[in-house]
Amino acid sequence: MENSRSSKIKYICHKCGAELSEENCRAEGVPYCIFCESESFEEFEKANGTHLALYLNCARFNVPLHPLLLGKDFEQEENKWFAYIELLEENGKHLVNERPASFADGESRLLRIFGKDFTEKDFAKYIHYEKDRLSKLPGTERQRETWGTRTLWQNLPMTTEVYDELDRIYDARISRYKGVSLDDTVREVLKKVSTLSLVQEHLRSLGDAAGYDRVQKIIDSMLASEQLRRKDEKPVEPLKMDAMVVALEAMGLMENGQLLNYDELVEVLRDKFVKSKKYAYSLDVADQMILDIHNTMRKNADIATLVDLPAEMELVDEYGEFEPEETEQEKENKRFAGLTKVQFEKPAPAPTTKKSKGGKK
């Protein structure tokens, strides 16, 4: 793949962040690596087939489409996007007047490529019929995505009432964990338990006591696996002041029944409780966060944002916790995010009092 990219300037793929070079980029100025373009083609192909995927990918990445270059064995290629780019280069179609060819330089008319039977009216009909079809489905789009559309249990189909009841049961269960960070696994367990709880109610209404008990065992097993049962919660012990003082003294947070002062407490916390005393990046990263937070507050107050951080907000690495210089990973991340090193506002000079030429008034 031809490329005259300068070795002094580094370009980054806008999707995966990989550094672009002659080996992974098809032309100068292209913002994506060839691997991300190929991945996009494969996603289009799964949904639309090979030829429409080629059209869509060319349009997405501004590559000319030349259908007549394709041979009978094109669909047998292991990587069709790579093969197509090579076909463009072999036939000199990748450049136009020494510039990378664009989508407009190739065949772009859908009606010419895919047939004249496809008209603008077909698009409007699709919108009309698809909206009509979705409006007749039970539940909302969000409910169908969350709970699925398959029959919940043998003769219990998914209806709008079932979707609403699933939402209610799930909200009731998850409300017990307000203020607690729940990962995706726990949320998924609670969703499954909510589904089984509704199945239980259905079995109870049918008088199927044995089925009800079997489902209950499944629910208990799922909750136990994530320690979500009430009996899994640790009991709260009564608070005893003398026991707490002894425990704090044993941990070095109190001395002779007296709390440590702030500076002493910080030292104890740093020495005994902080596992890592060093960050894997320079102090500038912390300054970047402070500047971003400060500018967000100014935006919320309808105040102009700052380019430089006020001098009084500059951090001091009192304990040597940060790297003395920017790490290579940090530099790479900043280039990808378009960030430069934080600059600080110079403090305003102290006002001076001018003496009167006439001496005393």
Question: How would you portray this structure in words?
Answer:
By secondary structure, the protein is mostly helical. Helices cover 47% and strands 3% of the residues. The protein has 13 helices and 6 strands. Helix 1 (34-48) packs across helix 2 (50-61) and helix 8 packs antiparallel against helix 9 (209-225). Mean pLDDT is 82; it is low at 1-7.
List keywords for this structure.
361 residues, 4 domains, single chain, two-stranded antiparallel sheet, mainly alpha
State the major sheet. 2 strands, antiparallel
SSE string: EEHHHEEHHHHHHHEEHHH
Strand order of the largest sheet: 1-2
Helix content: 40-55%
Question: What's the layout of helices and strands?
Answer:
Blueprint: E1 11-12, E2 19-20, H1 34-48, H2 50-61, H3 80-90, E3 95-96, E4 99-100, H4 110-114, H5 120-136, H6 141-147, H7 160-174, H8 184-205, H9 209-225, H10 241-250, E5 254-255, E6 258-259, H11 262-272, H12 283-300, H13 328-337
Antiparallel strand pairs: 1-2, 3-4, 5-6
